[in-house]
Design a protein that fits this description.
CATH topology: Rhopdopsin 7-helix transmembrane proteins
Order of helices and strands: HEHHEHHHEHHHHH
Number of strands: 3
Largest sheet: 3 strands, mixed
Radius of gyration: 21 Å
CATH architecture: Up-down Bundle
Strand order of the largest sheet: 2-1-3
Shape: globular
């Protein structure tokens, strides 16, 4: 039976979150608040550091500044509502609010996968074709690659969002998650989900395969080029420039593949919730730490900022 669309618009979702663990509500609130604070400071700080240091005005850091912006948006779309639901009894969210949260989340998650792929291509050009790097990675091309990444995110969210809008919902509906994640919303619909689930799986596979193909191909060429380098020092330096990026890729894609492409992972809502916490809340905090701790230029800029701040305070 299909309910009228206006009943879906009037539906209210109840985000259970971690309410089954009442004794952990306060500790979880403090934990997520700390993570969110570090994430906001880290990502906005990374953007500021890249902006004020002329040495960081390169394609790699241009892409990194967009990655930081995306991570900031990712965590901000979800975490404030998560924190609110940990301290209030009313965990409801309206249908329009839920769809809006999903749309923004979809845009930034998909965009991030492609930005990481673009960063892999940037490393490929820098290591395999260093003499033409400046010419090949022009400002225009960098802007086009970032724009294409955002376009893929918007296209994916519009398509999946349109399928969600066609589904029927009624009354107060319990979602066993802390956010309006696609599978959680679909699972509580009254509509036939066969086509919707097929489309979701197809989009996940397409996005993962296309972005991972770019990444794997780029790093295959990088590996071959690095292994041909005569000096051990040169090989270590080349691998060091890729280490942070490879770490970020492994964490994000490993989590997404486990959640959406491994059938058994959906059988436990606790596993799904932990996975969502990881790639929505934790990863946006880890990325600026991963890139800043392994980067001398970033650390040097941060030291100078603190030095200037301390000097101004003393004066």
């Amino acid at each position: 039976m299909r309910y009228p669309a206006n009943q879906s618009a009037e539906a209210t979702f109840i985000l259970l979150g971690f309410s089954e663990y009442p004794k952990l509500q306060v500790p979880l609130f403090l934990l997520f608040l700390t993570i969110y604070t570090v994430s906001v400071v880290g990502n906005l700080g990374m953007i500021l550091v890249i902006k004020i240091n002329p040495k960081l005005h390169t394609p790699m850091y241009y892409f990194l500044s967009h990655l930081s912006f995306i991570d900031f948006c990712n965590s901000t779309v979800v975490t404030p509502k998560l924190l609110e639901n940990l301290v209030v009894e009313d965990r409801s969210i309206t249908f329009p609010e839920c769809i809006a949260q999903f749309i923004f989340l979809c845009i930034f998650v998909v965009t991030e996968t492609y930005v990481l792929a673009v960063m892999a291509y940037d490393r490929f050009v820098a290591i395999c074709n260093p003499l033409i790097y400046t010419t090949a990675m022009s400002q225009k091309l960098c802007a086009m690659l970032v724009g294409a990444s955002y376009f893929c995110g918007i296209f994916c969210c519009v398509t999946l969002g349109s399928f969600l809008m066609r589904l029927s919902f009624r009354g107060r509906i319990i979602i066993n998650n802390f956010l309006c994640e696609y599978n959680a919303i679909v699972s509580v619909s009254y509509s036939d989900l066969h086509v919707t689930q097929k489309v979701t799986f197809a989009f996940t596979i397409i996005n993962e395969v296309s972005s991972l193909m770019i990444i794997l191909t780029s790093y295959a060429y990088i590996f071959i080029t690095v292994m041909k380098m005569p000096s051990t020092g040169g090989r270590k330096k080349a691998f060091s420039t890729c280490a942070s990026h490879l770490t970020a890729i492994t964490i994000l894609h490993g989590t997404i593949l486990f959640l959406y492409c491994v059938p058994n992972s959906k059988n436990s809502w606790l596993i799904v919730k932990v996975g969502c916490v990881f790639y929505i809340v934790v990863i946006p905090m880890l990325n600026p730490l991963i890139y800043s701790l392994r980067n001398k230029e970033v650390k040097e800029t941060v030291r100078k900022l603190f030095h200037i701040k301390l000097c101004s305070d003393k004066m």
